[in-house]
C-alpha cells in the first residue's frame, strides 16, 4: 500500500524478480478490499502512510491474515531494497515454520512415547495378575507386543526406519 508515483513500476520489478503477482493499493480502502478478496504472502505498507494514519496501518496488519506485514519507506527505498526485505521476511517465515513443525513433532512424539509406555506397563501388570483368564491374557500379550513394537519404532530415528522399509 503506497500512494507514491511509480508504485506500479516498482511492483512490476519486484514481481518479476520474486516470481510473484503483486497488487498495488493506493490507500487504506483499496488495501482492505484486496485483503478481503485474496490471501497474500506479504503486505507492504508505505511507512509515510502508516505514520500519517496509524489506525489504518494497524487495521491493515490485523486483516493481513497469514501475510507478513512489512513497513518500508518508499521515498528512500527502491525496488532492490524492497526485494531484499521481502526475501528476508519470507526466509524468516520458512525458518520459523520449520522450527514450529519440529517442535510440534517433538511434542507429539513425547506424548506418544508416554502413552505407549503406559500401555506397555499396564498390560504387563495385568498379565502378572494370577486371576486373568487365558483368552484375556492372550489379548493382553498382543497389546503388550504391539506397544513394545511401537515403542521400539518411536525410539528408532525416522531416517533409519525409512531406509529399512522396502
Architecture blueprint of SSEs:
Elements: H1 7-18, H2 28-37, E1 42-46, H3 47-52, H4 54-62, E2 68-72, H5 79-128, H6 134-155, H7 158-164
Parallel strand pairs: 1-2
What is the helix tally? 7
Report the portion of residues in β strands.
5-15%
Q: What's the Cα radius of gyration? A: 28 Å
User: How is the main sheet built?
Assistant: 2 strands, parallel
Question: What is the residue-averaged pLDDT?
Answer: 87
Give me the strand/helix succession. HHEHHEHHH
Structural class of the secondary elements?
A: mainly alpha
Low-pLDDT stretches: none
Query: What strand line-up does the widest sheet have?
Result: 1-2
What would you say this structure looks like, in words?
- With 166 residues, the protein is mainly alpha-helical.
- It folds into two domains: 7-77, no CATH class; 101-157.
- The chain is built from seven helices and two strands, in the order H-H-E-H-H-E-H-H-H.
- The chain has a two-stranded parallel ribbon with strand order 1-2.
Index terms:
2 domains, two-stranded parallel sheet, mainly alpha, 7 helices, 166 residues, rod-shaped
